[in-house]
Amino acid sequence: MVTRIWWCMAMMLLMTSAFGADEEFAQPESVGDQASLGANIQRTMTLLETSTPEKRNHVRVLFYGQSITRNPWWQDAANSLRERFPNADLEIANRAIGGYGGHVLINTAEFDLYPFYPDLLIFHVWSGVESGDQERIIRRVRERTTAEVLLWTSNLRWPSNVPPDGDPQDPSVLGVDGADQAISDLYFRLGDELGCEVADVRSGMQRYLAEHGLVVKDTLRDTVHPNELGNFLIAELVKPHLRYDADFPAAPWQDLVADVPVDDARVTRGEDGSLTLTFEGNRIDVIAAHTNDEEPGSARVLIDGQPPSEFPELYYHERPSETPTAGRPAFNKIEHEAPLVEETWTVRILECDLTEGVDILRYEVSGSVTGPDGVGEHKERFVSNSGRVIIPAKQWMVNWSLRYRSETLPEDYEVTWRVLPLFTDTYQAPVTEDPAQEYATMLAQGLSNAQHTVTLVPNGDGALPVAAFRVYTPPLVVEADGDD
Questions:
Q1: Strands 148-152 vs 120-124: parallel, antiparallel or unpaired
Q2: Which sign does the torsion angle of CA 139, 88, 429, 456 carry?
Q3: pLDDT tens for residues 92-120?
Q4: What's the CA gap between 87 and 49, in Å, rounded?
Q5: For the residues of 53-117, what is the DSSP string, one character each?
Q6: In 10 A of CB 437, how many CB atoms?
Q7: DSSP state of 322
Q8: What is the rounded distance in angstroms from the CA atom of residue 164 to the CA atom of residue 158?
Q9: In this predicted structure, what is the pLDDT of residue 480?
Q10: For residue 482, is pLDDT > 80?
Q11: DSSP-based three-state secondary structure for 3
């Protein structure tokens, strides 16, 4: 009781001493060299800063991680970008999944992260340091995309078996603190090795608590999730890194994404009006030229002389629909050993038995193009008859979610997902109604990060107004990985 009273008094002290006229809490001070904040995300910040009413740059930002990343602080950070850069065409998504550590996100990133291909990834995960899964995720981001990465070190945690004003040297406290410090150490190492931006939330919160006479529990609503003050501090310690500085060198990022105008010498024109570019990278877009033409034409797309649909690597399984409860994917990993086609997949549950000592989940899989494709059981590796769907053993979350909520499987429950293309076989030039908007079409994404050629062959059904090709070249070469 005394401990609880003390904690409430501390919060009242915060309310009376930290509140200002214009803000709810006293502003924390960013950690590190203030002049260098944001240095490793300047491609993104340059796109935002140089957006104007006449030219609205499209910028994609992805938040990824666990439940902490789904807490309200991320919306504060996202809204700050929208308010500061109203002329940018911002696309901001949060695909974080509560409770998923690095060992699970290493799988879900295959349908959540790399296909999204953000300009900026804002990332934090609690576990997966010792296993190497967190590092694998970030390395794959730098190998498979041109995304800049902002890592933020952990918010502070406090074990449930220690009072809020308990001994900081308690073994439980030291265990949590050591694990969180290991995350910080990893992130700073990756910052140095891979050119990631690192926001030191952990050190910033520690200093804030010391300055205001508070304890870790004052920032938490349980043992790990931030309360209002905790969310405020995370946002305010991340946002200073989201800044533009014209004095930062452009060399680290200027070659990641490059526009090649169609009148550039590297673009050749055929007698049939075709446009061909040889490029180095794993993604190629086409940027439409602005025109008053209300019925522009189309063109066949060729990559290395073939339609992009002929490249097996340019298809992917999207995230499957959710479990009946708890908001997680029905299963966390989908593979394949045969070439994919665009289609919708459906899993229907044949038997679900969660009685004590029993754990049965049998299902049948069917594709909208493939048709009925086999029956599986969640404890065993499932390989569909066609080879287009592989669900490894113990990747299902349905049984777990039902037990977690003490519920039964709904009678009409089924799982669906699509196989989606990362390509365009036929480029239809868009009607460019808004002169400030950029009309970009992805032609192929997910190619080997090597030399390729792209060709647009007009179909003769109208003018083909093209301004440029956009080439994406990830900074790291893909290395062999036993888990790939």
A1: parallel
A2: negative
A3: 999 999 999 999 999 999 999 999 999 99
A4: 9
A5: TTBB-EEEEEEEESGGGGSTHHHHHHHHHHHH-TTSEEEEEE---TT--HHHHHHHHHHHTTTT-
A6: 16
A7: B
A8: 8
A9: 55
A10: no
A11: helix
Tokens of 233: 């501090």
Are 389 and 415 a contacting pair, CB within 8 Å? no
Asked: is 257-311+423-472 a CATH 2.60.120.260 domain? The reply is yes
Is the pTM higher than 0.85? The answer reads yes
Question: Tokens 């030399």 correspond to what residue?
Answer: 451
Strand partners, 94: 63
The contacts of residue 12 (CB under 8 Å, 6+ apart) are: none
**If we measure between CA atoms, which residue out of 149, 154, 157, 144 comes closest to residue 124?**
154
Helix axes 102-112, 133-144, angle to 10 degrees: 20
Domain 2-241, second-level architecture: 3-Layer(aba) Sandwich (3.40)
The residue among 476, 406, 415 whose CA lies nearest residue 144 is 476
What residue ranges do the domains of the chain occupy? 2-241, 257-311+423-472, 314-418
By the 8 A CB rule, do 216 and 230 touch?
A: no
